[in-house]
Amino acid sequence: MVSSIVQDLRYALRQLRRSPGFALTAVLTLALGIGATTAMYRVVQGVLLAPLPYPAQDRLVGVAFTFPQEKPNDEQAGTSASFLKEHSRSFTSVGISEDGIAGVNLSMGGGHSFQIGSIKVGRSYFPTLGLQPMLGRNFTAEEGLPNGPKAVLLSYGLWKRQFNGDVGVVNRVVRINEEPYTVVGVMPPSLADTGQSAPGVAATVGVWQPLQLDAKDPGYGGDNYKMVARLREGVSVAQAQQELSSLNKPFYQEFPNYLKWTGRGKALHEFRTWPLQQVVVSDVRTSLLTMLAAVLAVLLVACLNLAVLMTARTWRRAREMAVRSALGASRANLLRLMLCESLVLALAGGGLGLLLSRLAVPLLLSTAPIAIPPMPENEWLPAVFALLMACVTTLIFGLLPGWGVLRRNTGPMLQGGGQAGVTAHQAKMGDRLMVLQVAVAVVLLSAASLLLGSFLKLRSVASGVQANRLAIAQVTLKGDAYAGTLHTNQFIEKVMENLNRSPGVARVAAVNGLPLDRGLNMGGGPVHSEQPQGAVEIRAITPGYFRTLGISILSGRYLTADDNAGTVPVAFVSETAAQHWWPGRSAIGEEVWAGEKVPRRVIGVVADTHSRSLAQAPRATIYEPFAQISDSLMKTINGWFPTTFAIRLSGDMDMAAVVQRAVSNADPEIPVAKLTTMQSVIDRSVAAPRFFSYLAGGFAAFALLLTMIGLFGLMSYQVTQRTREIGVRLAVGADRRQILLLILRRGLLLTTLGVALGSLASLAVPRLVGSVLADVVFTGGGGIERHLSSSVAALAWAAIGMLVAAVLAGYLPARRAASVEPTQALRTE
Amino acid sequence: MIELKNLERSYKAGHMETWVLRRINLTINAGEFVTVMGPSGAGKSSLMNVLAMLDDQWRGEFTFDGAAVETMNRKQRAELARRRIGMVFQSYHLLDDLTVAENIDLPLSYKNISKPERQALVADTLDRFNIVGKKDLYPSQLSGGQQQLVGIARAMIHRPSLLLADEPTGNLQSAQAKEIMEMFRQLNEEGATIVQVTHSEANAQYGTRIIELRDGWIYADSAQADAIGREVRS
Ligand SMILES: Nc1ncnc2c1ncn2[C@@H]1O[C@H](COP(=O)(O)OP(=O)(O)O)[C@@H](O)[C@H]1O
Ligand SMILES: [Mg+2]
After folding, report:
1. Domain-located, residue B82
2. Which of A25, A213, A284, A289 is deepest in the core (most CB within 10 A)?
3. What's the pLDDT at A183?
4. Rounded distance, CA A771 to CA A459, Å?
5. Is residue B111 one of the residues assigned to a domain?
6. Domain range list for chain A
C-alpha cells in the first residue's frame, strides 16, 4: 500500500516534469492563493481570535454609553462614567481612560524635545486589566488631582528606545510640555502601546498620565472617555448588561440634558457592555473578515482555474487511464493516481504560500492605513491552516476533474482511437468549472470596481482648500505655559514673523483645527434664533487664514490685526452655518455663541471646508481670531488639538530647516510635531479607501488573469478535441472567419453564463463594500450609501472587463482553430 | 469540366520532399462517373483533396469549368467549392452532436440562405434520400450505411455539379455498399459528375471510367485506348 503510493507519487512527479509550464502555473497560483489566504488568516487569528494578553481576560468587558445600533465600543462621557462607577454593582473594578492618544512634547535632561503619544488613565485602569508596572509603581490618588504631583508611567517601547532600558529610570524627572514630571514606573511589554489618536488613525503610546474625572474638565460632558471593567465573580456579560440597562432611567432622571443627544430616529444613548476582546477588534473586524473573504475568493478562482486545466489534462490522459483500467486498475487506484498529482502541486504551492504569508503580514500591517491592534505571533496555527488549504484545494481541483474519469465507461476509448477522448460529461465538467470561475472572478471584479469608483468619487470631493504649494507645520502647545491666550499668541506671531521673513514663503497663517484634521466642536450657534443650539465647529485663526488656504470670503470684510482683545469680539461663519441659521438673509452683523461667555459679531461668511473627512457634509463652523479667544477656551483647544501653520510657498526652499528654525526661535522647547503638505493631509484622509480599492483591484486583476489562463487552456484543449469537427465544417463550406467566431463564441458563451451567475452573486457586493468603507471613512452620522459609486456601473465594468478578457484569452485558440488544415484534420489513419 | 495539367503535390518533412502526385494530366467531362483506384498510399486521397479544393499546396494547372483555379486565392476557391462541389468521406465525418437534419443543414448554414428556404431544402433532401424518419436521430444511433447516406445527403443538399467520394463504402458491408453505389448511379443519371475512390472492383463497375494511380503517377486510364497492364489490389 505505502509503496504503491510512493510509486504513484513518483509517477505524478514524472508527469509534472513532462509539462513544466502547467506545473509552474499551478504551483505559483496556488502559492499566491494560499499565501494570501494564510497571511489574512494570520492577521485574523492574531487579532480577532487570539485572547487579549491580560490575566483572566474573559472577565474583562468594555462598557459604553452609546447608541443602541452601534457595534461593540467602550465610549463614555465623563458624566456617564462617573455615574456608572458609582451605581453599577456588576464589576469588581472599573478603569477609565481618555478616548484617544494625544501628542505631547517630551524632553529629557535638557536635550531637545520631541513629540510622543500620551494617554491619561484613571488609577484603577491598570489594576482592572490585571497589570502592574514592571518597574516602579502605579499612580497614587494625589497624582490624579489637578494640582497633585506630576507623574508619568513609561511604555516599554519608549523606555527601551529613549532610556536604553535603564532600570534606574524610576524617580527620574523628565520635562513634558515644558513642565517637570516624575517617572513613577515602566509598564510591561504585554500592555498594548498602540491605539488611535483619532478614529482610524493609528498612534503609539509613549507615556501614561494620571486621569481624575472632574466635572470641571472641559471634556467632561462629552464622550471623550473609555471604560473597561472586570466582571464580578459569577456575573455574566448578559447579567451585567441587564443591570446596566436598568441604570438608563435613573441616569436620564439625574442628567436630563443628555436627552438632547439623539441620533437618527431619535434614538438615545444607552449603557451597553461587550467582552473587551470584541471591543478592541470591532473597528477592524469587518475589514479583516472582508479581506479574508476576498482572498478566499481569489483562492477559489485559483482552484477552479487549476481544475479547468486539470480537466483538460485528464482528457489528454484519458487513453492512459483506459489502458490502466483495462489492466485491472480499480477506480480507487485511478483516483489515487490523479489525486497524487494534485497533492504534489498543492503541497508545493502550500509550502511556498506559507513562506509568502510570513512576508506578506508585515507588509500588510505596515501598509494598511487602518489601526490593526497588535497581535501575538504564532507559527504552527498558520502552518496547519496552510496545510488545510492545500488539502481543500486538492480536493477541489484534483477530485472534480477526476470524477469524470471515474464515471466514464473506459471501454470505447481503447477501440476508438485518438478522437474519442472526451465524453460529453467531461466536456460539461470543464465548462461548468469555467463558468464558476468566471462567476467568482466577476464578484471580485465588481467589488474592486465599486471600491475604486467610491474611492475616486470620494477623492473628487472638493476639500474647499487650494492645496497646491501649501505646506503644513504642526506644533503641540500643551501644558501650563500655553494655558493662556497671551503666551500662545506671542508664540504664533513670532513663528509667523520668522516664516514670513524666509525667502520662498508667500503667505503664512495659523489655525487651530486644520480642515480634514481634528478641531474643537461644542455647543454654539446664533444668539437670536428660534432653532435650538446645536454642535458647531470652532476654529481659531489668524488674519490672512482664508487667503492663505484659498478659502473664499463670500461676504463681509477681512480679519485684521485690529480685531484684538481690546475690540468687539468678531467671527466668520461658514456658508452652511449662515444658510442654516439665517436662511434668506445676510449673516453680517448677527451674533453667535461660540463656546464663550460673550457673543461674537459676524463680520463675514466664508466658503465651506470639510472639517474631518471628505465624506462628511460640511458642518456649521465659526471662525474666531486667536487674539480674541478667552484664556479658558485657549487652554482647552491647546490641550486637545495641535496648532497648524499653513505656509503658501512661492519658491523652492528647505522647508524642514526653515520651519524648525522658526519654531525653536520662538520656543526652543517646542518641537515640530508634523511637517507635511496640505495635499498629503487630503490624501491621507482617503488613504483607507484607496488602500482597500487598490488591494481589491490587485485581487481582481489576479483573478482576471487566472480566468484568462483558464479560458485559454480550456479553449486550447477544446480546439484540439474539435479538430476533426472543424475540418468537417471547413470541408462543407465554412470559411475561416466563421470558424474563428465559432470558437470565440463558445468562450464568450461560457463567460456570459459566468458573468450572469456572478452578477447575481454581486448583488451582495454593495452592502459588503459599504460596511468596509463605513469602518474606515468618517461620515459624521450620514450613511455610507451616498458615498458609494453606482453599483450598476461597477457591475457593468466588471462584465465588460471579463468579456474583453474572454475575447483576448480565446483569440489565440480561435486563431489556431481557424488555421486548421481540413486535409489534415480529415485524414483517417 | 475538370482539366488538370502537370499537377504536382509533395510533402516536405525536414529536408526530405516526398512526392505524392506527379505530373497529373487529367480531363474529366461533365456527367462522367470516374473511379480512382490504386494501392494504399498511391495518392488517391491527395488527388481528391486537390479536386475538392481543400488542398491548395499543389503546383500546375487546374481548370474548373473554364476557370483557372491556380490563379484564385483561398477565398475564391472556397467559394467555388461551396457552390459546385460536394464531398463524401470513408468515415462519414458526421458531427456527433448534431442530429441528422442538422448535419444535412450544415453546408447551408455557411451560405446566405434564408431560414425557410433552408428548411425546405433540408426537407426535400431528407425526402430524396429516404431518411425523413431518421431526421431527429444522432449519428451514433444509425448504422454505418445510414450514416453514409446522411453523408451523401449532406454533400448533395446544395445540388453540386461535382460529387467527390473518398472510399465511401470502405467501412461498410457489401449489402450496404451496394445501396450506396445505387444511389451514386442515380445521382449520376440525374446529372452529377462523380469521382469516387474505391478498392472494390464491384464498385468500380458502377462507373464509366477507371483511373489507376501508382506512386503518384497516373498508371492507367480506361478512357485512354492504350491502357495496359491493369492490376487491381484491394
Ligand atoms: N499530411 C501529410 N504529410 C506527409 N505525408 C502525407 C500527408 N498526407 C499524405 N501523405 C503521404 O502521401 C502519400 C499519399 O497519401 P494518400 O493520398 O492519402 O494515399 P491514398 O489515399 O492513395 O492511400 C502517402 O505516402 C502518405 O503517407
Ligand atoms: Mg486515402
Report:
1. yes
2. A284
3. 96
4. 19
5. yes
6. 59-282, 422-460+686-829, 477-669
